[in-house]
Amino acid sequence: MRSIDIWQQRYRGSGNSGLGSRGHLLQFKVDFINSFIEENNIETVLDFGHGDLEVANGLVVSDYTGIDIFESSVSHESHIKLVNSRFDEYDGDSVDLVLCLDVLYHILQGEEKYLCRTIDNLIEKANKFVIIYAQNSLDPFFDKQYTEHLHNSKWIQYIQKAHSDNLTLIH
């Protein structure tokens, strides 16, 4: 799949997830998730798309598992477990909180079945909560501006259609 190829190549090169895991965006995510973890007594976290581990290294949680489509060589804290897997094929344990940060809009046009299976899997793996951070724009120029690695995937619409009976969507 094109999206997997793009990210495997990117991490072989720079090893960097980009602006979403740097500076004020990184700090916003870490602060928000750590507050959520504390307020909801979260003990276990599964991160669909751990990337360069900048977010993971900032989280205060005793049991973190990150999955991604590439083999990571980034150094990380000892409580962090990493799994190399496609998102739709991960078959590990369920957890209190599933994260999916800056991932869904990188699943490209033509990969909608993979997107839907990924969403189904990340919801299935959550015992309590799912946090998704992703673009869901109706901007017709979004896909044209970032054609190489971003796609306006309409993930919220899929969740509303496929999971509205067992999920409360807050955004």
SSE layout and pairing:
Elements: H1 2-13, H2 23-39, E1 44-48, H3 54-58, E2 63-68, E3 80-84, E4 95-101, H4 112-124, E5 126-133, H5 142-145, H6 155-163
Parallel strand pairs: 1-2, 1-4, 2-3, 4-5
Walk me through what this model shows.
Helices cover 35% and strands 18% of the residues. The chain has 171 residues and is α/β, with parallel strands linked by helices. Helix 4 crosses helix 6. The radius of gyration is 15 Å and the shape is globular.
Broad structural category:
alpha/beta
Main β-sheet, spatial strand arrangement: 3-2-1-4-5
Discrete helix count: 6
What's the mean pLDDT score?
Answer: 79
Succession of helices and strands: HHEHEEEHEHH
Q: What percent of residues are in strands? A: 15-25%
Tell me the distance between the termini: 30 Å
Low-confidence stretches: none
Choose one word for the global shape.
Answer: globular
Q: Please compute the radius of gyration using only Cα atoms.
A: 15 Å
Specify the helix fraction band: 25-40%
Largest sheet: 5 strands, parallel
Find the count of extended strands (DSSP E, 2+ residues): 5
